[in-house]
Each structure stands twice: as C-alpha cells, then as structure tokens.
Amino acid sequence: MSADSKPIKTKRSSAPADGAHSRSGKKPRAAQPQTIAPAAVVKQEREEEEGDATQSSSKGEASQSSSEGEASQSSSEGGGGAVAAATGLELEAMDEPQINVTIGVSLLHCHACFLPLKPPTFKCEGGHVVCCTCRGKHGEACGRAAAYAACRELDAVLLDAKLPCQYQEFGCRSLVAYYQAADHDGACPWAPCSCPAAGCDVLAAPARLVEHFRDDHRWPVTSLRYGDACRLPVPAPAPAQGCHVLVGEGDRSVFLVSPCALGAATAVSLVRVRAGGDATTAAQFKGVLWVELPSSKDKLVLTMPAVRSSDLSDGFSAADKNMFLAVPPVLLHDASGEAPELMVCIDEPAGDAAANSTPPARCSGRLQ
Q1: SS3 (DSSP) at 59
Q2: Where is the chain membrane-spanning (predicted)?
C-alpha cells in the first residue's frame, strides 16, 4: 500500500440472512427489490386468493340463498296449494247456493202408484221409475220389470227438492221435501182456523187466534198446566159471554170452553182449536170437566176419553155436539148463594205424538 493511499472505510451492514460473506470480502448490500418483491407478490397472491375465496364464498352464499329462496318459494307455493285445498273443503262444507226451479210434477211421481216418489227409488228395464214398495205391483203392468236399478241420483234430488208450506201466509216458515208435503200440511200447527164468534170472519193460525180472542172479543185467556185442575167460573150462556180460552203450557195448544143454553140448564163443552179436526194424526188429549160448590162434596163430572179437535169452521155450540156437561139450574142458583165452580183438567198425550203442537204466537199487529 502506497503512502498516498487512504484507508477505505466501509459502512457496517447487516449480515445476509444466511450469515455468509461474499467472495470479495465485502458484505453485500441489501437488495431491496429482491427481498421486498417476493413478499409483495406473496401478499398480492394471498389477497387474490382471499378475494377469490371471498368471491367464491359470496357466490356460494348467493347460490345457497337462491336455493333457499327457491325452496321457500316452492314451500310457499306448496303452502298456497294446501290453503287452496283447505279452502275448497271449507267451501264444500258450506251450504250450497239455492235456486228456485219449475219442474213437471210427473217427474216426481211414481209410475205405479202415481204418488210422490219417496227414496229409495228404482228404475225398471223399461225406464219406469217407481217407489221401493211398488216394484211388485209394477211388475204386473210392465213386461220389462224383471230387473231394477237403484236411482241414487234421483234420490238425492228428491231429498233436496223442497217447497214452502202452503200455510206460509199464516206464519209457517218450513221448507218441506216434496214427497213429505202432504203429511206436513195435514199436521202443520199453522193451518188456519175460524173464529166461532157470530158475524166474525177472521181466519188465522190458533196461536194468532188467541190474540184475536183476547184483543177483539175480550174473551178471558188462562194458562193451563197439564194434569192439574184449572178452576174457572161457570160461564153464562149469554151470547156476549163468549168462550173461555185455555192455552197449554209448553206446547201452547189452544182449547175453548164454550157454554150455551140448554133449556134452563147450561151446557159446557171443551174443544181443541186445530185444523183438520179429529182426522189428523195429532196427539189426542184426555179431559175431565166437573162442577162443584165450594161447600158441597157433590159433583157433576164429565170424562172425555179424547178431547175433540175442530177448526171451528162450522162455529162452536156445546149443545150441538155429542159430548157436553149439563149444569142444572139448582147448581147455578143454589140457595146458599154460592157460585158454582167449573173445574177443567186436561192430560197431556204420552209419547212423541205431543211433538206436533201449536207454536207460540209471533208478534204481529195484523192477523193473516
């Protein structure tokens, strides 16, 4: 080394990562691009991988959400179908709309007995529709009645073909199957009866006749308990006296106690106000009438095995009927001055026959 040479100072640098020196003996300068670039590339690749993963995750979630949405939509559509089915069942359970139609009566009558067809019905090979009980009779008249087929569709029509009661204007609101109409009309409690008062032409159901008797004729009205004696004054036979009205508790059946002159005596009779009279299948009441003085044990008794029914179309006079209680003058004008009492006891019919009874009066200001 010459004298002019100056010592060379080298900067201390950090040793290489592997701790080795270069061949020149100098410590290599840190190559920033070589050491930083790979890390940056790795970081970028990681970010890209994470981005790809995030995007894939997002796509997966979107796909999952889409699947769930489709599943939810399918579920909703399925639920809608179930709701629609349930609604259909509810509609079937509801009452169907009703219509009024006009139909030939012959279509609803038997070809053998010519009465209204009553289910079950049958059709022969000749096309004739008959009642169940008419198959044997029809076989004698039709040569093709060897075999019969059930008419179930017609049975459904017969059960549902209904018409209003013919006494609708008098208060009945029943809708009756056509084949049952005759039976209903014969037993309808709203069938009209006449007022028996002279010169009165009122025609009304028994329940409304009670209002007429009370309001227009001032006849007394008494509630009657079946099986118990009802105490009444012996009615005078004067025309102005009229009748005494009894109304049964529960079934609201209407009875009239009617007096009339029978010579010097007074005839008293009992009748039930009901259309059709005794020809109907209505329940038959039993009754007992007797007259007594409060201070005497002697009685005049009339036992009625069946209380007569009448629509009063021919009036009502006790003496004109075959069953009445004759009260002699000695009881009507007793020396003691006591007034005789009329006792009425009506027994309610037993069994289901009592179901056909007079309905309660509807509030109405006008009699039909």
Answers
A1: helix
A2: none
How many of the other CB atoms lie within 10 Å of CB of 194? 20
Give the range among 167-181, 310-324, 336-350 with minimum mean pLDDT: 310-324
Torsion of CA 168, 174, 178, 184, to 10 degrees: -80
Token pair in block for residue 228: 């118990």
Q: C-alpha angle with apex 245: 244 to 249, nearest 5 degrees? A: 140
Strand partners, 269: 258
For every residue of 182-204, DSSP letters joined together read: HHHHHH-TT--EE--STT---EE
Of residues 254 and 362, more confidence is placed in 254
Tracing tokens 């006079």 back to the chain, one arrives at 317
Identify which of 356, 262, 366 has the alpha carbon closest to the alpha carbon of residue 318: 262
Q: Are residues 287 and 264 in contact, defined by beta-carbon separation less than 8 angstroms?
A: no
Question: Residue 205 class from Cβ within 10 Å (0-12 exposed, 13-18 middle, 19+ buried)?
Answer: buried
Within 13 A of 59's CA, how many CA atoms are on the CB side?
6
Look-up of token digits 């007394």: 220
Amino acid at site 182: A
Q: Contact at 8 Å (CB) between 180 and 130?
A: no
Tell me the sheet residues that pair with 291.
300, 342
- Angle formed at CA 276 by CA 259 and CA 365, multiple of 5 degrees: 75
Q: pLDDT band for position 324 (50/70/90)? A: confident
* Token reading at 191: 């069938």
Q: Are 145 and 136 in contact (CB under 8 A)?
A: no
Query: pLDDT tens digits, residue range 225-240?
Result: 999 999 998 877 766 5
Bridge partners of residue 121, in order along the sequence = 131
pTM of the model: 0.62
3-state secondary structure of 99: coil
Separation of alpha carbons 206 and 57, rounded Å: 88
Q: Which of 36-45, 112-121, 326-335 has the highest mean pLDDT?
A: 112-121
Q: Percentage of residues in the chain with pLDDT exceeding 70?
A: 62
